[in-house]
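#lab-general

N.A. 3:47 PM
ok so I finally got the sequence cleaned up, no stray characters, all 337 residues accounted for. can someone with queue access submit it? mine expired

B.Y. 3:52 PM
send it over

N.A. 3:53 PM
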Amino acid sequence: MLINMNNQKTLVFSLILCSNLALADHPTVAFGLESAGPINTMSGTTAPDGVFAFGLRTEVLNNEQFTTSELEAYGADGLEGIHSVDEIRNTSLSAAFGVTKDLTLSARLPYIERKNIRESEEHEPGEGEAHTHGDSSGFGDLLLMGSYRFFNSNDTDASILVGVKAPTGETREKDNDGVRFEAEFQPGTGSWDYLLGTAISHSNGAIGYHANILYNKTSEGAQHTEVGDALSYNAAVTYRLSSHDHASHGHHHTDTSNEIKWDISLEANGETRRENRIYGHLEENSGGTTVYLSPGIKVSAGGFGGFISIGVPIIENTKGIQTDVNTRIVAGLSFAL
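B.Y. 4:20 PM
back already:
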């Protein structure tokens, strides 16, 4: 995004896209709505006061899979609980409101699906099994965020981010055998989590620069499981392809026309997550660091917008034995009033 470019209403769509990026089996924790601007990096710009916005966002993680023979070998070696999930899909509805010109509140409700969950088990000493659990799906936890802009100049905005994730999601989904999925495969975590971070944006003509950092403090939730704390860090460069009015991309310029505007972006999106804990004990095959390089494109006209981003992991330093991510696709639509 170019900060507060041609249509101020589109600003709200790039707000609070801060993320705890996906580490293997954990989808992005993201907030706000999307249109002009970076797709996965949060902008430091807040929404115009009095503006409502709504959005639909889908994130798809395509994972590498362990083969049946690999899982059987892990089980035979006594390494139980090594799991493989083919795909994770996180589809969420969002709403945001500009309370004042410097304060925006937003909420996101996700629906999370995990496809073909399989796990290594020790059938008997020296003999392993690849157990197929099936699919898990349901509504995830409600995410709430506030963004307060504490610095504003003609071409630079900086905001502080404060958020909470409430334990509203489903935590009792069952597998093909009618057995309750472990907590890490449930749509909800059953825990209260808290978020704190900051974001900054700077514009220079047709080019925009954005960065944000966010810490997610988790707590113990369902089945005495605590998903590890996470630190996410994102940076983006955006460029407006439209030739119209590049010179007037200042913070307070308003364009109410329905001209179609195109923005391209290149982002680096990273997360470092601690290991999960179950009954207070560390889960060795969890946590680590993943960084994506994510090119994307957005189109907006009036109060409508759409976008797509394709992320490719350039750093995967996960702990223990975990599958890698092949691609992460993020796409969505948005509308402002």
